[in-house]
Amino acid sequence: MRKRKNSFLPEKRTCKFCGNIFQPASRAxxxxxxxxxxCQKARKKATFYNWKMKNIEYYKLKDLSNESKKTEIKRVxxxxxxxxxxxxxxxxxxxxxxxxxxxx
Length: 104
Description:
mainly alpha; 2 domains; 4 helices; 2 strands; about 5% strand
């Protein structure tokens, strides 16, 4: 068998956060940030901020009045009762993931 050469390597780019020139990973054509930990943290923070702005509804419970919170909580609790197996499976997986993170 012949060894395959990398037929395509992305061009070197400038990091969005630190401004240094870096070689993107061969399969990451949209990569705009270098591999430095500080730049990756900044990218993650910016991405989360953008997600949060697009998904404001996700945090709506915090901003609701007491009456609205009560009705929302009641709705969720009713859903939990109706979908007990699904909820239990979800919680079991969630707790397993948290334990794995803490043990790692």
